[in-house]
């Protein structure tokens, strides 16, 4: 399972509270690996119980104070082990593809064409967002290994969005031309 490893990665980048992790998942990690607030907190508890992370010592009473977590050496070792694991590519599980296939059985209606247009617009918005990240990151001009790897992940996201937009353009042209 990758959620614990996503959390370990985020905590190695910066010790954080559960709330901060949730915000980071919403802003960056969530573009390629999503998790709910409840899933993150549940996983933090499991990681702490497994001895992979710990809550940092806080000043004053703990009631009402947010816990900030850091990765322990055993957590770093687990992440290093996981990074080296070989995995085969996974087939995409996008409901849109299954719904489109179903239209071959029940018939292509205007609703599906409208849905394809909506998805294309959403992918265009996400591409614009990624391009803005790319512009912002280029302006920073950092050349660390972390920056290079983040840029690779971002480039993968850009290319996926370009794929979806191109594919949706073709699908719409085909379906609208058939009508």
The topology string of helices and strands comes to: HEHHEEHHHH
Sum up the overall morphology in one term. elongated
For the biggest β-sheet, the strand order reads: 1-3-2
Cα gyration radius (Å): 21 Å
Low-pLDDT residue spans:
none
Major β-sheet profile? 3 strands, antiparallel
For the secondary structure, the number of strands is 3
Distance between the termini: 44 Å
Please, what is the average pLDDT? 88
Structural class assignment: mainly alpha
**Could you estimate the helical fraction of the residues in percent?**
55-70%
Give the percentage of residues in beta strands: 5-15%
Count of discrete alpha- or pi-helical segments spanning 4 or more residues: 7
Supply database-style keywords.
single chain; 179 residues; mainly alpha; 7 helices; 3 strands; elongated
Layout of secondary structure:
Layout: H1 3-13, E1 16-17, H2 18-27, H3 37-49, E2 53-55, E3 68-71, H4 73-83, H5 95-106, H6 110-140, H7 145-178
Describe the structure.
This protein has seven helices and three strands. 68% of the residues lie in helices and 5% in strands. With 179 residues, the protein is mainly α. The longest helix has 34 residues, at 145-178. Helix 1 (3-13) packs across helix 4 and helix 6 (110-140) runs antiparallel to helix 7 (145-178). The chain is elongated. The protein has a three-stranded antiparallel beta sheet. The protein has helices at residues 3-13, 18-27, 37-49, 73-83, 95-106, 110-140, 145-178; strands spanning 16-17, 53-55, 68-71.
């Amino acid at each position: 399972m990758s959620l614990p490893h996503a959390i370990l990665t985020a905590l190695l980048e910066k010790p954080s509270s559960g709330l901060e992790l949730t915000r980071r998942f919403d802003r960056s990690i969530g573009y390629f690996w999503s998790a709910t607030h409840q899933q993150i907190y549940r996983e933090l508890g499991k990681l702490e119980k497994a001895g992979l992370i710990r809550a940092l010592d806080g000043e004053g009473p703990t009631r009402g104070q947010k816990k900030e977590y850091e990765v322990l050496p055993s957590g770093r070792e687990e992440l290093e082990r996981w990074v080296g694991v070989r995995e085969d590519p996974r087939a995409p599980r996008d409901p849109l593809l299954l719904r489109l296939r179903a239209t071959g059985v029940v018939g292509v209606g205007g609703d599906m064409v409208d849905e394809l247009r909506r998805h294309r617009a959403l992918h265009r918005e996400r591409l614009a967002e990624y391009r803005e990240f790319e512009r912002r990151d280029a302006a920073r001009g950092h050349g660390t290994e972390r920056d290079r790897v983040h840029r690779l992940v971002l480039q993968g996201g850009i290319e996926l969005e370009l794929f979806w937009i191109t594919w949706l353009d073709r699908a719409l042209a085909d379906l609208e031309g058939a009508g």
